[in-house]
Amino acid sequence: MITPLTSIIGVWAFYLVAVPVFATVFAAYALQKTSGKQTTYLQPVRIVELTHQGSGNVAALTLSFTHARYAQAFANANKEEVVRGVLVVREGHEPLGSKRA
Fold first, then answer.
1. Which of 42, 45, 79, 89 has the largest CB neighbor count within 10 A?
2. Contact at 8 Å (CB) between 64 and 45?
């Protein structure tokens, strides 16, 4: 007579699967390391200033990136907006509430 696995181990079947999977995912995330001067795998961006006109139309946007190369690549990809002054790209985050001259 063949008995299904769940009838042998009962409710513990969920824990026998869920706990090792959760531990593996948590360990993989916790052990990730960035390479070189990279601060993170993500490219955090902060909206420093936003000027809008009318009902939700953006007139100007200032962004601050933590990673200088990513900021430069973003500015290069949006050259027209940067030249028109609609988009300002900064490198490095400033303390919240501070203003650059």
1. 89
2. yes
Domain that holds residue 66: 45-91
CA neighbor of 53 nearest in space, from 86, 75, 78, 83: 86
Count of C-beta atoms within a 10 Å radius of residue 13: 14
Q: Confirm whether 4 is domain-assigned.
A: yes
* 83 within a domain of the structure (yes/no): yes
What is the number of domains present in the chain? 2
Contact between 6 and 13 under an 8 Å Cβ cutoff? The reply is yes
Confidence at residue 79, expressed as pLDDT on a 0 to 100 scale: 94
End-to-end alpha carbon distance in the chain: 81
Q: Which pair of tokens denotes residue 8?
A: 């042998």
